[in-house]
Write a structure and sequence with these properties.
With 406 residues, the chain is an alpha+beta fold. It folds into 2 domains: 199 residues, no CATH class; 196 residues, no CATH class. Helix 11 packs across helix 15 and helix 12 runs antiparallel to helix 14. The longest helix is centred in the last third of the chain and has 39 residues.
């Protein structure tokens, strides 16, 4: 064992020399708590991000192709050339047409603003998971049927089999009193729960042909929704589709559609990391104070070491090693503890959440090795920096003065 490492270990022990001192344990404990807290919180944030991403991808197409200003696009059914061109792009798994509009829906007891989407039921099941989220009734559009979100059903006070009156924002008739929009009765065939309040409260799904006739858009669609094999390359693929199709078409991927939300989540993770790093900084100040106290208490021993030939570089390394030992032990224990707690939370779902407040019932946890590497590296660097001042102070001690006054 190197001389400097041996002395560093000896300085961290109690007077009896059999175990670490209480002050050392407190300094190590500060690093341990800081690292464990950061890793557990980041794992929980990652879990929320993953759950949110899965819920969004369950109801949102990976890529949406439309014209600027959502101008209608001619659609020729199964022989549509634009649909075939989009499907031919590498990485595109499936493509489906859709019609999109905002309007009002009225039940016997309430009126609500909604987003109506006309879809091809068979094609839609290859794009989103709305059909799998139906909790009442069926994903069926027979007999002028619609499928609505659970929150919208609650607001309108309807159940499966009830009637809804939907207003067409475009089609209608002119009268001496002005334009009268077309209205039509639809039957609630199914109620879905996507896990996202925004989708559950505003979306109404209608059969594509039914909605085309209702809106006066026969032979026209709003755009095309596509599913891709790699969701993380959807942005690059969307740009490629935009450049190949040219103006007036544009393609938007699922990240761009929810850019504000994902930007806020990334910012939240960064801010949380910075705040929790302050815990490690507090522990680093404990290490500075402890090593400085050791220098003051061991002034005579340091003077003797220098008299016996120990160079200033050796004394510097002694206290650097002492800081690294405390930081390394605290970081290692904190990483292990954070891993165990995160694994237990993820495996046994120990923490439950109120379902009426959050979109999930259990606390989600997802560990990422990048977080462990960054956090552990940052903790070791901080504790190493904390040992610099005491090491510098010890190296500058005058051996004659140290021995004389001790």
């Amino acid at each position: 064992m190197k001389f400097e490492l041996f002395v560093a270990r000896r300085y961290l022990r109690s007077r009896a020399g059999q175990r670490i001192s209480g002050v050392t344990a407190i300094a190590i404990g500060g690093v341990f708590i800081g690292v464990a807290a950061i890793l557990i919180v980041l794992s929980v944030i990652n879990g929320f991000h993953k759950e949110l991403q899965e819920r969004i991808l369950g109801t949102t197409p990976h890529i949406v192709v439309t014209k600027y200003s959502y101008a209608p696009i001619s659609y020729a059914g199964s022989e549509d050339t634009l649909l075939a061109r989009i499907r031919a792009f590498p990485g595109v798994v499936d493509v489906a047409p859709f019609v999109y509009a905002k309007t009002l829906v009225r039940s016997e007891s309430a009126v609500e603003g909604v987003v109506i989407r006309g879809i091809d039921p068979k094609r839609e099941q290859g794009i989103t998971d709305i059909a799998a989220g139906v909790i009442e009734g069926a994903f069926s559009f027979d007999s002028s049927g619609v499928v609505i979100g659970i929150e919208l059903a609650r607001v309108l006070g309807v159940v499966v089999g009830d009637k809804l009156n939907i207003v067409s924002p475009f089609a209608g008739t002119s009268t001496p009193l002005g334009f009268v929009p077309r209205t039509k009765h639809f039957r609630v065939n199914g109620i879905f729960d996507s896990g996202m309040y925004e989708y559950n409260s505003i979306f109404v799904y209608i059969g594509l042909e039914e909605l085309q006739r209702f809106l006066g858009m026969e032979g026209m669609v709003t755009g095309y929704e596509a599913r891709v094999s790699n969701i993380y390359s959807s942005g690059k693929l969307a740009r490629l589709i935009t450049s190949r199709l040219g103006f007036p078409f544009r393609a938007v991927d699922w990240i761009a559609q929810n850019r504000n939300l994902f930007t806020a989540l990334r910012l939240e993770k960064v801010v949380t990391f910075i705040v929790l790093v302050l815990i490690v900084l507090v522990a680093a100040f404990n290490i500075v104070g402890m090593l400085t106290m050791i220098v003051l208490r061991k002034t005579r021993e340091i003077g003797i070491l220098k008299t016996l030939g120990a160079r200033p570089q050796s004394l510097t390394r002694i206290f650097i090693y002492a800081g690294l030992l405390m930081g390394g032990i605290g970081t290692g224990l904190g990483a292990v503890f954070g891993f165990i707690v995160s694994w237990l939370l993820n495996t046994y779902r120990l923490v439950t959440l109120p379902g009426d407040v959050y979109f999930i019932k259990n606390l989600p946890v997802q560990m990422q090795w990048q977080d462990f590497v960054v956090v552990c590296t940052a903790a070791v660097i901080i504790t190493l920096a904390a040992a610099v001042y005491p090491a510098y102070k010890a190296a500058r001690l005058d051996p004659v003065e140290a021995i004389r006054y001790e």
